[in-house]
């Protein structure tokens, strides 16, 4: 009897899951006609954000939650980019579906709504001189027109990913600002940063595309079995570091774009836009790496997908494990949108960070010394650069490196830098990296 009940429940769960996340061959190809459907899930999220900034909307937000999640997941996992080099956009849609779902859950479960640090109710300040405990909220002149003001309120809370100036972001690390906070100087420094990050992202992404198989839409392993041991892992390490650095450059690039738009167009204060990263390669412990130097943009999302639930079960330790498990599931379910299956390597890598962080705590307890210095930095590099290679391999096997991230016409690296290097090394223009990898 119990087996029959289990099988029946399994079939129901499977059917519900497939109703929202069809098999790849059952998904709808994106065309010029239906591409606008991808904007539809943003509408209920904006309304949810508006409600989260209005008092006495708790019941309405709870009732709206299933609709917001269903529309986001059902849309972004149903419509599919079918061109192989566009497959990475399916990954992006998966990330967007999860982000919308997490934000909707966060907006819905807080009975009082989303409050800023000095508020007792949405929009009602405790006092005008309240101290800001974790940076500036993205304060902008509130539009006088009510029709625009409600949209401003919704977008403000939706885009406040780190929670600067909000109660949900209290205690978050804010990187030290190295730019002048004078508006014109700040904008100029941010523009220089944007150009530099664009060049770095373009160069690294272009170099990754030179690696046979790895740089194709179908993907391939970063561990080339035909190479000798040292060459094989030297190449995999180079690809792994380039991939991580490329991701860092992308974060900075998009953040710089948003910062310039907010300060130049919306009149936001430069102090509302501190750096998104804090020199992660300088970390000398995993604790410093994950809690301070790595970006904190997805922090609240990981809490929603696992951290809060883990805390209910096992307190602080449960929150630690739950947050990293939630991070792993977030990354892998987005990659599932590629249509290349589910790989447990990705959630395993992120879940592994929790016991590794506990190892640092045990070390400090029994030796009296915190992990740090040169050996601490080597420890971080081992955990991220060595243990993280299967994670990068999982992504590249499913076509991460071959996706169309920048059109070749907008790529200085592919238009000028790489052709010049090829020509200087080999007059025939042969792909030197492909020659080495393919013939060693």
Could you provide a short overview of the structure?
The chain has 440 residues and is an all-alpha fold. It has helices at residues 2-20, 42-52, 58-76, 87-109, 146-159, 183-208, 229-264, 286-293, 299-336, 345-367, 373-386, 389-397, 412-425, 432-439, and strands spanning 28-29, 79-80, 119-121, 124-125. The protein is built from 14 helices and four strands.
Question: Any overview of this molecule?
Answer:
This protein is an all-alpha fold and 440 residues long. The protein contains 14 helices and four strands. The protein has a two-stranded parallel sheet with strand order 1-2. A hairpin with a 2-residue loop joins strand 3 (119-121) and strand 4 (124-125). Helix 2 runs parallel beside helix 4, helix 2 crosses helix 5 (146-159) and helix 6 (183-208) runs antiparallel to helix 7 (229-264). The radius of gyration is 23 Å and the shape is globular. The N and C termini lie far apart (60 Å). Mean pLDDT is 88; it is low at 129-133.
SSE map:
Elements: H1 2-20, E1 28-29, H2 42-52, H3 58-76, E2 79-80, H4 87-109, E3 119-121, E4 124-125, H5 146-159, H6 183-208, H7 229-264, H8 286-293, H9 299-336, H10 345-367, H11 373-386, H12 389-397, H13 412-425, H14 432-439
Parallel strand pairs: 1-2
Antiparallel strand pairs: 3-4
Helix pairs in contact: 2-3, 2-4, 2-5, 3-4, 4-9, 6-7, 6-13, 9-10
């Amino acid at each position: 009897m119990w087996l029959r009940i289990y099988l029946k429940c399994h079939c129901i769960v499977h059917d519900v899951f497939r109703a929202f996340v069809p098999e790849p061959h059952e998904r709808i190809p994106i065309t010029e006609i239906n591409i606008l459907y991808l904007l539809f899930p943003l509408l209920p999220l904006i309304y949810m954000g508006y409600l989260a900034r209005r008092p006495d909307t708790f019941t309405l937000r709870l009732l709206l939650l299933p609709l917001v999640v269903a529309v986001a997941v059902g849309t972004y996992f149903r419509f599919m980019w079918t061109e192989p080099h566009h497959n990475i956009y399916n990954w992006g849609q998966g990330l967007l579906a999860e982000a919308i779902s997490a934000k909707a859950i966060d907006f819905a479960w807080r009975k009082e709504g989303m409050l800023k640090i000095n508020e007792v109710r949405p929009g009602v300040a405790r006092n005008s001189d309240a101290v800001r405990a974790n940076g500036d909220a993205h304060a902008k002149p509130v539009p006088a027109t009510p029709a625009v003001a409600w949209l401003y309120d919704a977008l403000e809370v939706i885009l406040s990913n780190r929670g600067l100036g909000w109660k949900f972001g209290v205690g978050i690390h804010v990187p030290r600002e190295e730019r002048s906070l004078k508006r014109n100087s700040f904008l100029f420094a941010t523009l220089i940063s944007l150009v530099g990050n664009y060049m770095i992202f373009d160069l690294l992404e272009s170099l990754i595309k030179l690696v046979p198989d790895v740089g194709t839409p179908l993907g391939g392993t970063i561990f080339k079995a035909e190479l000798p041991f040292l060459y094989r892992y030297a190449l995999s390490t180079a690809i792994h570091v380039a991939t991580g650095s490329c991701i860092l450059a992308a974060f900075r690039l998009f953040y710089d774009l948003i910062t310039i738009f907010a300060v130049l167009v919306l009149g936001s204060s430069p102090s509302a836009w501190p750096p998104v990263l804090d020199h992660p390669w300088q970390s000398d412990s995993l604790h410093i790496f994950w809690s301070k130097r790595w970006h904190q943009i997805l922090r609240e999302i990981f809490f929603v997908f696992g951290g809060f639930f883990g805390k209910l079960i096992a307190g602080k330790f449960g929150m630690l494990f739950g947050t990293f498990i939630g991070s792993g599931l977030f990354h892998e379910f987005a990659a599932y949108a590629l249509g290349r299956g589910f790989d447990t390597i990705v959630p395993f890598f992120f879940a592994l960070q929790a016991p590794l962080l506990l190892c640092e705590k045990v070390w400090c307890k029994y030796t009296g010394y915190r992990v740090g210095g040169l050996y601490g930095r080597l420890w971080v590099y081992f955990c991220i650069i060595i243990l993280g290679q299967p994670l990068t391999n999982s992504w590249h096997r499913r076509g991460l490196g071959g996706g169309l991230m920048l059109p070749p016409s907008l790529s200085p690296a592919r238009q000028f830098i790489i052709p010049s290097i090829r020509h200087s090394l080999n007059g025939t223009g042969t792909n030197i990296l492909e020659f080495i990898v393919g013939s060693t």
